[in-house]
Structure formats: C-alpha cells, structure tokens
C-alpha cells in the first residue's frame, strides 16, 4: 500500500521513514553488509495530465481527452507541480523497499500509473523519459524510428510486442522477483537507450549522498545491453557517453551531458559463457562536455554474480570528491539480498552538488550481435529506486508526448517514429505541439529541455551557423545557436549528432493555460533533417 504525502508533511514523513527503516541492504547510516528486512520511503508531490494510448500498426497512438495526440501534430502534456496537489507523491510503507532510513525519493513500482505519460506506465509526475537512437535517425523519411520489442513475461493482457511508449511496463511479481517491478525494453538499435529521469532533484551538498536501486545486472555481452545510472546537473534528457577516439562511433557516441556523473555496469568481467557476473566498466564524469573516465584496472576488477531475470541490489555513494559503487550478488527472490560488495571507488572532482538522477537501459545492437538476430531488444528489470537527502522543491514540468507515428523501415520492420522535424525556416514549422494547463504561479525562470539530432561528419557543413529556432503561441522566433562547448562536442567528439539542450525561454512568451510550441532550423542540412524529441518545459520558482 502507498500513502499520499504532501510537502508540508515532510517532517512527519521523516519521522515515519526512520521508524520504518528496516530495509534489505542497509541505509545511509548503516554499515554496508547489513541486510535487514522491511521498508522505508520518501515524499514526492505533483499533479499529472497526459494521455491514453491505443494501438496503431503495432505501435501506440495517443488519443483522447486533454492529453490526446494524433500522428505527429503534437499533443497535450503531463505535468508536475512543486506544490502539493490532490495527487501527492507515493510513500512506501513496507516490504522490500528502498534501503534508506530517510528517502528524498523512492519508487517501488507497485502499479501502473493511472495516467500514462512519455515514461509509459511510470508516474509522469515523478519520471521524464528519453528514448535515443542516434545513428542517422532521420533517414528514409523517418524521424527517430524505434521498432518493436518482443516482451518477456510481465503480466496478463499484454500483447507480445510493444512499441514506445508501452516499452516501459510495471510487471506483476514472479518467482525470481516476488514483488511488482519495472520492465524496460529497448528496441532502438545501434547505440539506443531508454533513460528515465527522476524529476525530484538529488542534493548532496556538503555530504555523501546515497543512490539505491535493484536492477538486473546481467550482461550477456557488452555488444548487446546493460544498465547504468546517471547524475547530471541539468534536467537534460538521455545522458550517456561517447568513448573511444574522435570520429569513431562504435563505443556509443551518445548524448554527452554538460556536467554530470555516470556509472556504466557494462563489464561482464570476461566470465565464461553464458556470463554470470557483472562489474563497473567505467565511472564517467563530465565538465562542460569534457569527459573523464575512471576505469578499474583489469587485474583488480571486482564482480558480483548475476542471473538473467533476477535482481542485484546496487548502492552508489556520491560526494563531490568521491564515488563508491557497491552491489550484491543476485537475489533468488528479489526480496532478500546478500551483503553489498565494493565494486569500485574513484576520487572525482564534481563542480556541482545538486542534480538529477536517471536510470538507463542500453541496447548497443541486439539484432546485429545476438544469435541469428534473435533478440529484437534488450530488457532490464528494476525495483526500489531511490535516494536520500533533503527534499528540495521540484520545478513544474510539462512534457510533450512522443510523436508516435507508425511506419516501416528499410528492413521491412514496423517502427514508431518518436521525433519531430525541425524544418528549414524558409519552409515553416512541420508540427505544432501543445502544452496544456501550464501554471505560471510563482515561476521565475523557464527552460526547454530536449534532445536534438543534427547531421554531422562532413567538414563542408557550416556547424558554427547551425541554429535551432522555436516560438511559443505564434510569437517571435527565438534563435538558439550552438554554444562553443556544444559546437566542440558536435564536431570534435565521438558524436553521432545527438545532443541534449537546455534552452532559456522568456516568461513573456508563455501564457497561463494552453500553449503551442513550434520548431524550425537555419543553416542545417535537410537531406537528413534535424529532429527534436524528449521535450520538457521546466518552470522553476
């Protein structure tokens, strides 16, 4: 059972959380290695809007109500509000819960959200989703097309194959995970990922904070898929990494955050086949898009046992100067876990002390590297995701749904396109997107967070003139050229053209209630047109 708790009840929440804190892998004040049972929790708040989904050509088509959407004409949004509304956030009260004595956030995935959003069956008041597929995603007239994922056992009544946004499901308990939990299927090939950002900020100023989660650590091969956790300063979508030498794209070449920290659990520790262990591939930190990799030396890699379909428990201790990563061997039932082991410790130099946590599932290329192309997606399972610390105010957030346009790719596979074209300014906007029920009360700043894809890889392109433009409510076009750091990343990094932007919005462009949003571009090639996706309007007090 989950109880509603409002921000004004935080003091009461904390007292209850301490009383309930007998959890499965220790807490922020317990030594690693203890494994008590029970539950803990946290407080969240927010209202939600959004849409309902229906099938279209094997994909999902948003329809109906104020949250409706048809084709690629935009749609209504789901929203979160920093104040306490009639839908206060969940507070877990028992069972195998987040291992924190006092949680600022904890989601135990007890049931599908009553109002789905871009994050599928996750509560849109708590989660913002980003799907990325950076390799030529606007070829063949498609706009970031994602094919279907043949889902494993989850719960009755589901089709055998799911497309965005129903690639994110809350599953019933099973023999290996004896509690409801999250299933993520990433069918996006060639460096695809599904990232889910927690809208509640994580504050670790002047302390060592703790991020906890249970996840399937199993890595069949680094060429198939794995899980990771990111902590980034900006609420930008889909943070990942781009490793290797400049101009080589075979080591993800994904969205690099401006400022952040990532832990990639991509190492199967050169085990026998099938693999039975997992460790840390690298801890990546980023400062103004410049990355530093902290990688365990081969001779001292620490790994824990894994099993496909089972959960490991993970804990990440974070301060501005140090990151410690712990994990347990896999659990037979998803409820009882062994003692956490230190996988890796790195001395870092983070210039931020408050940011946003994302949980991410990666698909490097399952169709290419699985046996005879037998795996059309990489799946992960998650439970009990949370972090400790002070409960700081959330921004109001309003999301644009994915476009969800059904189609067929050159390999004759059904796909759903999630992106929107940023057509040339001379042509005019391709789509009009809609944000419903926007509240400007108490708002001091407004920003757009979005993913953008630009054609790159040719020295003849005028990258320094690439400009994305947007306008609200038919008002003036606002120009957003690349910053110097973004330009350096697009042209000099291991980058395939996929970027995440934070864009300032004048408050005078917005109105209370319903708003429209349009995009165009200048000086960007249109043979593979630029596209935008994963769009959130973020209003801060």
Structure report:
- With 541 residues, this protein is mainly beta.
- The chain folds into two domains: 7-388, Jelly Rolls, CATH 2.60.120.200; 422-540, Jelly Rolls (Sandwich), CATH 2.60.120.
- The protein contains three helices and 35 strands.
- Strands 4, 9, 10, 13, 20, 21, 22 and 24 form an eight-stranded antiparallel β-sheet that branches.
- A hairpin with a 2-residue loop joins strand 17 (282-287) and strand 18 (290-294).
- Mean pLDDT is 83; it is low at 1-96.
Distance between the termini: 32 Å
Number of domains: 2
Shape: globular
What's the overall average pLDDT, rounded?
Answer: 83
**Rg over alpha carbons:** 22 Å
Percent of residues in beta strands: 35-45%
- The CATH topology label of the largest domain is Jelly Rolls
Percent helix, as a range, is under 10%
Regions with little confidence, pLDDT below 50 for 5+ residues = 1-96
SSE class: mainly beta
Biggest beta-sheet profile: 8 strands, antiparallel
> CATH first level of the largest domain: which class?
Mainly Beta
Index terms:
single chain, 541 residues, mainly beta, Jelly Rolls, eight-stranded antiparallel β-sheet, 3 helices, 35 strands, globular, disordered N terminus
